[in-house]
Amino acid sequence: MNKEAAMATEIVLETRNLMRVYGERMPVKALNGVDLQIAAGEIVAIIGPSGSGKSTLLNLIGALDRPSSGEVIVNGTPLSKVRNLDRFRGRTIGFIFQSHNLLPTLTARENVEVPMYETSISGSARRKRAEALLAMVGLGGRANHLPGQLSGGERQRVAIARALANQPTIVLADEPTGNLDTKTTAEIMALLIDLNRTQNVTLVIVTHNTEVAAICQRIISIRDGAIESDVAVQDEIERDLLRFRSSPLGQAILRGDPLPGEIAEHADRLREVLTET
Ligand SMILES: Nc1ncnc2c1ncn2[C@@H]1O[C@H](COP(=O)(O)OP(=O)(O)O)[C@@H](O)[C@H]1O
Ligand SMILES: [Mg+2]
Description:
The protein is α/β, with parallel strands linked by helices. It is built from 11 helices and 10 strands.
């Protein structure tokens, strides 16, 4: 969705002339006037060189940090007007980081439950919801495992389940696939896109990975603390193909795995098309 189209729909995230300066004696301008609007249900990639201000922007959008000046507006609420930011964040925004940040002594289920302590949900409902979320991310059988007993991809799935604990309308991810191999990256992206489709979660994903960015609907490029470009991924067909490519079936076709009957007949042609994208 481009800027004009975003205007026509519900804006869930907005920044106005956002600035963030770190330090006083040797000030670093990490963000230098960012104006941004993101509509409900968008999947936005934020790309840019290391040190360009991507994490700073995401942290400000997610109320993990305060701007030096300017404003962040989430679901119509200016964050500067929010009394209890922790509470607001906990109920509105889910975070996924590059390193999963799971608590090592808690099981997968207990980790997913952590954000729910911010709400009034009962203990049994909390456990049930955590189990349902783990099942949704494909970890139904791993609820009682500790993070150390899980693979990198599995830990990131737990982190996604945890991000969804309080039914956020917005999920912010900072290099969510940065530590994962290509196959696991594709799986995690497929999962995130599925969440966007089925639950209309707005996704903002900081990434270095051009394939990850290409799957998104819109790519915002940051340089030296400012937006350098903001483009919609125009070609719907190409986008669908990229999504299909990152899906488990697309991945299976690319690997040349044996496929179920009807699809098998078209496997060669599909592989050709997917390899061209
Ligand atoms: N806590 C901090 N204190 C001082 N400088 C920081 C801090 N966090 C980030 N910076 C600086 O701000 C700039 C933007 O950083 P960051 O947002 O982390 O970039 P990116 O995520 O794009 O790599 C960099 O120059 C970085 O060194
Ligand atoms: Mg960063």
